[in-house]
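User: Predict the complex with pyridoxal-5'-phosphate.
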Amino acid sequence: MNNEDYDIETLAVRAGISRSQFNEHSEALFLTSSYLFNSAAEAEARFRGEQPGNIYSRFTNPTVTMFEQRLAALEGAERCVATASGMSAILATVMGLLAAGDHIVASRSIFGSTVQLFNNIIGRFGVETTFVSPTDIGEWQAAVRPNTKLFFVESPSNPLTEVSDIAALAVLAKQLGVKLVVDNCFCSPALQQPLSLGADVVVHSATKYLDGQGRVLGGAVLGSHQTLEGVYGFLRTAGPTLSAFNAWLFLKGLETLKLRMDAHSASALALAQWLESHPQVERVYYPGLPSHPQHELAMRQQRTGGGIVAFEVKGGKDAAWKVVDSTRMISITANLGDAKTTITHPTTTTHSRMTPEQRANAGIRDGLLRVAVGLESIRDIRNDLARGLDAL
Ligand SMILES: *Cc1c(COP(=O)(O)O)cnc(C)c1O
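Assistant: Here is the predicted structure with pyridoxal-5'-phosphate placed in the model:
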């Protein structure tokens, strides 16, 4: 099918399908580590890259390829390479695009393991990272050095849902000859398409909304053929590639992505509005609320405010823990992007490795809670939070 002729709902269900000799209707799961050649000459041609086709599942696998093509269609990307997890997508991006002596400018508000990866792992190989404000483009410009090769941003951010101006960052990156990488995990292509805003690379943790049902880990890197050549080369050689089984689950997850994201978003907006009017809530962070500092930008850049709501309760950590411990239905877990609503207390879990000063600078206070709104009824989600909030 010609992807340009179809809407995102259709691409999510039909893009990327290739059928075997059995003409199966649903996408097949190919559990094979290697592939046969019909002759010595064919083996040689395959290895030389003169004849297309599979060799070994660390290089390519038909089920993984179907997932890659479907996600590429949804993100509007020339190419997608799938990875074993979101973190290996980010690792592969860095290993594919950078060399010792290069420099990264990254938003301060990115996933904790990404900060660890930049500081403690690739930092050891001579790639330095400077962290800047997600919302002040002047800080990005000021942090640039002659050896800067990569901008890295996540929007909206976790847990405070700060929104970065992707199009403005892309203009700056282009002027400087720097590649802009966007972690599109929180929005998914159903809500935001960073490549169409000028970004060079999109990375995903497919573990979150792309699966949407909390089953398996996976990731992906998307961009132009040229940009992704080195990323693919790293994956094929080093091996943190996606398993066929996980790709098969993600293919099915993508079919309902748009429906799920719309439902997550509608409930998140309703929850955010209710929380904003609750007397025990100090402040609500949700890009879909007019009170959000980047509300207009968010509504230009994203289709909805997304499925994640953060809010600060009055009374600090004790009050926040009381709300968490008063839930009977919502899952107390650090994961997000699941059909099941989850609640997290960032300062004692996901952001506990930051020093109190770092957290204060980032605006992550002890009363803050993050809810990743699931697909249960909004009435039940609200009631589960009201039990703790009303008792404060
Ligand atoms: C979870 C997450 C990652 C890492 O993905 P894994 O699949 O857990 O490796 C990266 N970025 C963001 C924004 C995430 O939420």
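Residues 3-254 form a domain with the Aspartate Aminotransferase; domain 2 fold (CATH 3.40.640.10).
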